[in-house]
Amino acid sequence: MPRKLTPKQAAERYLKEREPNVSKSTLYNHRSLLRQWWQWCDDHGIEYVNDIDGFDVADFRLDRQVEVGEVTLYNQMTVLRTFVRWMQSRNLVQNGLADGMVVSQPEDDSRNGMIDAETADSILNYLDKYEYGTLRHVAFAMLWHTGMRLGALRSIDLDEYHPEDHYVELHHRPESDTPLKNGKDSEREVNLAIWCCDLLDDYINRKRYDVTGKHGRQPLLTTEHGRVSKSNIREHINQITRPCTYKNECPHDREITECEATSRLLAARCPSSIPPHDLRRSSVTYLLDNDHRKELVADRVDMSVKTLDKHYDQRSEAQKREQRRAEFGMNG
């Protein structure tokens, strides 16, 4: 008789068995995806993994593909397939379930979805005029201005924002649900422009819910229920980057009143909408395009120069050449 395990129990057992044999970053990535998996199962009334079939796996994939890009989806489904194979080996799910999973290899291992500085300015102007000081305004402004990850933005506590000195602190606290991507190595202080601090000050004074999170901390970004969730921030970014939102136009020849992407939860289906990770890529490219040194940019956004070159630097070869020409004083 196979043992009955909940999705969370199965994932935790899998992670415990994997821990001695994989790196901390790999274990963290697997845990992040599997947490989304067991929460999805809970939302869909799946009590035990023993009841999971191919339709459940396919439904999870369909839900994820409207949330993330092609490369991220591929990586996440690869992790899930490895986990499903482990469950097969423990006689928790039907044999052959992993083999039937759709895990399509992306054509390119680096996405190029992004917005340029002009688009970012248009979005900020819209937010300044119509949604000033809201959570959505702050989330977009902070992610564009700092290039930090979604999880890093969410992790900041109220007392880690220093308005007089214009910076925020980032701390790795997995025990209270705010881990940073690279653990302790991601901890740092991030400078903020005065305009961004002014916005944060107005948000705190006028719009922020004065609540304490479930771990006894006071988050910087809140909803009436506590610390803002990743999915909440992701929805805000997907929504505000739709052209129909910030300039009431559709570049895709769709009738705005009939387009499914105008729905709050389906904003990611707009071809022009981008998720927070692509906003991070856009921010990094903007910094590089404005002649900031790669080493300083990489340090600000917490990544290696090698990763920056491969996945985030979206400048054309002509742009790079012109910047080298200027730096070496060859424009005269």
From TrEMBL:
**Do the record's keywords include S-adenosyl-L-methionine?**
no
Q: Which SUPFAM superfamilies match?
A: DNA breaking-rejoining enzymes
Q: Which InterPro entries match?
A: CB, DNA_brk_join_enz, Integrase-like_cat_sf, Integrase_recombinase_N
Q: Which UniProt keywords apply?
A: DNA recombination, DNA-binding
Taxonomically, the superkingdom here is Archaea
Q: Where is this region: Disordered?
A: 312-332
**CDD domains for this protein:** DNA_BRE_C
Q: Which PROSITE patterns match?
A: CB
The segment(s) forming the Core-binding (CB) domain are 5-88
Q: What is this protein called?
A: Site-specific integrase
- Gene source species: Haloterrigena gelatinilytica
